[in-house]
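Supplementary Note 2. Why include the ligand at all?

Several targets in our set were suspected to adopt different conformations when bound, so apo predictions alone were not considered sufficient. For every target with a known small-molecule partner we therefore ran a joint prediction. The input for benzoyl coenzyme A is given below.
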Amino acid sequence: MYAQLVKSEASSETQADRDFQARIDRGDTIEPKDWMPEGYRRTLIRQIGQHAHSEIVGQLPEGNWITRAPTLERKAILLAKVQDEAGHGLYLYCAAETLGVSRDDLTRQLLDGRMKYSSIFSYPTLTWADMGAVGWLVDGAAIMNQVPLQRTSYGPYARAMVRICKEESFHQRQGFDVMMKMANGTSAQRRMAQDALDRFWFPALMMFGPSDAESVHSAQSMRWRIKMNTNDELRQKFVDQTVPQAEYLGLTVPDPDLAWNEETGHYDFTEPDWDEFFAVLKGDGPCSADRIDAKRKAWDDGAWVREGLMAHAAKKAAAALAAE
Ligand code: BYC
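The joint prediction is reproduced in token form.
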């Protein structure tokens, strides 16, 4: 279906569109002041904006455990990780702003449901082992998706990704370290680690997006190098990388049909429940309402700061005008 969409767009292509595509095909980096098709700009705003929202909303399930971390060291590490996520959100909002959209506008679109955040953050973090599973699986999936995006065609996005990926690698390792401690701890701790893997495995697989057959944007986004791989390619890479890690931890991936396939050189695995995925996208995830409520409260509570800054800027501008 999507291939047809690309074809019909191609038939209305102008010379400027073709020149732009030639730049993309040559591997050029597109910078904010360069000419770009409106669809390219809109696709980037959607993807970068949703990515930024995911980083910010992603602070909520982890922030939940800062006060309950089991040791001072674990608390300091988790605090640093959650602060990193805020930084990632800021780099990404800045990258989106270079495309002519304001951060306030992106936030309003998130709050009124016009923009999404990653489905994974609509799931609850119920135990300390979930901090391990989130770092290991969620950051692991994020890295799988984001390392190729360091070579994406839009310069500000690609450059933001370089730093984000370095920090995500640290996050993934801290998550695996938490899982190692739990998996090699008491039998109660091992059960918590297994339970966290059981609950996060399929939601982590959903992070890569719908299957390629259902993905509306992949074909065009890959043509523009806004995406470097299809959703299914990255999901498979993630499974292939993560299963041996679960074995090393002595944990069982909750998929009875998971099996190494000698012929393909990959694991065969069960697809996530796509009905559940699309329900989460519509705002029916277990924590969807809580996450948006928390964001709305933060936005409302910050109104006086925004108003104060605007009033100060207006006063300065008026004074500068009077002095002319
Ligand atoms: N959740 O045509 P498709 C992180 C939407 S990690 C929610 O395949 P696309 C973090 C999609 O937006 C997570 N929505 O879309 C990690 C589209 O709807 P719209 C953030 C999803 O864009 C640890 C529709 O489904 N990472 O931040 O080509 C700690 C059809 O899908 C999801 C990124 O954002 C989902 N999982 O591919 C803290 C990476 N999947 O927009 C934070 C950059 C799909 O038409 N983004 N949808 O209404 C991407 O690589 C791509 O946007 C995706 C989706 C692979 C996610």
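The first helix runs from residue 2 to 11. Residues 46-47, 50-51, 54-55, 58, 85, 116, 118-119, 138-139, 142, 145, 206-210, 215-218, 221, 227, 231, 281 surround benzoyl coenzyme A (CB under 6 Å). Comparable summaries for the other entries are listed in the accompanying table.
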